[in-house]
Amino acid sequence: MALSYKTRKRLSLLILLIGLPLYVIVAINIVALFERPSILVELGVYVGLGIIWIIPFKSVFKGIGQADPDADPNDQ
Fold it and tell me: Where are the domains of the chain?
């Protein structure tokens, strides 16, 4: 299922404004499950979770910063 540029742009905004803050709360709660972990363990968990969240959304964010490829070039 190929998403249009407009749909991907809206979906990426939704993910960043709603999904990412929720994911941060989940990550903090995961670290809180450990009983006072060392700073390196805590850093490793945050870095790992920071990389893992983007993997399913890679195709949504790809090319969002570029101009709309479906737009009419004469329409400026």
Answer: 5-60
